[in-house]
Amino acid sequence: MSISNIIIRWRYRFIPDHLVGEILSKNWIDNVIPMLFLMAVIGVFGAAIPDFFSAGNIANLMRQWGEFSLVVLALTIVIVAGGIDLSVGSTFALGNIVALALLNVAEWSMPAVVVATLAIGATVGLVNGYLVGYLRLRAFLTTLVTLIIVRAIVDMLLLEYSIQIASGFIDSDAWYFLGEGYIFSMPFSVVVTVILALILHLVLSRTRAGWHILAIGGSRRSAHNIGIPVRRVICSTYIISGTLAALAGLLFASRLGGAGADTGIGLEITALTAAVIGGNSLGGGRGSAAKAIIGSITVVLMVNSLVRLGITSGANSLLLGFVLLLAVAIDIRWVKNRLKVLSNVYVSPTLAELPPAPATVAPSPYAVNDRLGTVEQIGLDEIDGPEDVILDDNDNIYAGDRTGNIIKFFAPDYKQREVYAHIGGRPLGMAFASDGSLVCCIGGMGLYRITAERKVEKLTDETKRSLFSVIDDSRLRLADDLDIAPDGRIFFSEATVRYEMHEWAVDCIESRGNGRIICFDPNTGETSTVLKNLVFPNGICMAHDGQSFLFAETWACRISRYYFDGPKAGTVEAVIPDLPGFPDNINRASDGTYWLAIIGVRTPTLDLALKMPGFRKRMARRIAPDEWLFPNINTGCIVRFDDQGTIIETLWDLGGKNHPMITSMREHKGHLYIGGIFSNRIGKLKLDGFDPHWTGQKSYWGRK
Questions:
Q1: First-to-last CA distance in the chain?
Q2: pTM of this structure
Q3: Mean pLDDT of the chain
Q4: Which residues of 487-513 are buried (b: 16+ CB within 10 A; e: fewer)?
Q5: CA proximity to 30, closest of 342, 271, 321
Q6: How far is CA 483 from CA 161, 429, 541, 549, 569, in A?
Q7: Which of 178, 235, 415, 628 would be a feasible disulfide site paired with 254, CB 3.0-4.6 Å?
Q8: Which tops the pLDDT comparison, 564 or 258?
Q9: 493: DSSP letter
Q10: Domains of the chain
């Protein structure tokens, strides 16, 4: 091996190129630029102001931040839904004056004042929400008018009650606690803000209501077309916004105890600056509570520091305006170019060297023939893409299709069919459990079970996340094939953790080892990863010894054995290291051997390209995806081999007339039933010399 080849091998072993694409694909990457800007603000003003990090300064900043960040959160939830609320500053001032007037003039109790103030804010939000959500008025103009009206109301209240408020005294420790109290050494307003921010984060990221808000912000028309109540959701965001702004005004009133004509003036612009600086998109559909918090901290630090440095209020506003302009420009450019950058770096090929391909001419055991030329056709044009086929005790055939159904063909002639179950995802590998239920891998969804009563149940759609993984590999992206151990444990393959169902062939360009094998134990309900870093693991079949299973790695062109029990538990052995094509599903044969589907034959061009990761990387960046060099997946072949990896026979579809791409086959009562993910039929081939009474259920569970 040349020195250059050694360098290439070590370079791709120790430099994880794929991490760049994975990091850029994360939602939290949007927070990087705001965090860097925040660090810069802290660094600049920390160096310019001597006591910037003093306890007194930090305590003062925290109280201001607690109130201000509530307004930013209020504006954020509206922005995420694709709107804007310019009335938050006036609502803040209204909450402030109403709270003080009710306490000093009306002499209401403190709890009643809190409820009434929040109700006033919610009412302003309801007016905005009804006009924008239900009457479909422009959010900018509507909330601008609301700003003017609410500000006028505030001015009228000030003229009427300012003297009484200024001369009054509130004798309530609970009231002063709102603005000056501490909880666990933290100002009360900060604690409230953190709790509400966490709630908002959970709502946006973990609840249906939050997903509806994000969907509406992304595309209001599309959200309406899929049944989301757009008007109601938009109205609710404005109600929440008004309530939070009034709450901030309430806390401000408790802290300062006074009301002035300048209260809340310009607050909407400052809050908008904070929301955008934090990374919330003005276009809607992209934002979070974390972004609002980052932006609010940044703006509070900037405003307070500029005042302490003696910068005039005009210059202060001018600087905030420039910052807002810069943030909007960055937001627009980032949204426009992020996917372009990601598409250039996400596909990250690595060095993959396959062993020499065995010959497919005599006297090779893989010699091409036409033994599949006599295959019968079942359900021609009545099924689309039966990736796997399986038969029950009554000889009925089950196969998944591209529309998310599992189709049942009734024996003996298979002319009659029905939708046995509708799951919604792409049904792939299947197996019957000992209780007669049908267990199925669903691409993009996980592992499911259809009971004997035809009830669809989810078994698992996640596993334990790897400790040091940048990828969130807890979610199952492409559960592929499965088999069931004698004790009921289900072992199934996940072909790739980086690509979705429709992108499965792109994983070959990487050949990085993105796949794994996972175990689900129905007795405990636990899911755990058994093997990692596999090159598109695919077919899984329990060996006849009851202690191991065979599994295929498609792009590595090999079959291996994993021992899950017995003295060799936890070890992997090579069985067939050098297949002439790409293996898929594996299933038992009646004579103690195994059937293997080959979805395509290796080509010298792709074998060479796998040794040239730089070439594949340039191809992925410079050429349209429909012109990439993909594996040949249009040759049908079935291989039978034994436990030692000896090839017993091969069955080819010469010319590709019956099954140009075979992904699975099942032996059942002397016949071989064949499926293909791109086929429009199920094949049936008579096997001479095989047990006419043997079934998979009898082999696995002893049933006759």
A1: 57
A2: 0.76
A3: 90
A4: eebbbbbbbbbbbebeebebbbbbbbb
A5: 342
A6: 77, 9, 6, 8, 17
A7: 178
A8: 564
A9: E
A10: 18-343 (1.10.3470), 372-459+473-701 (2.120.10.30)
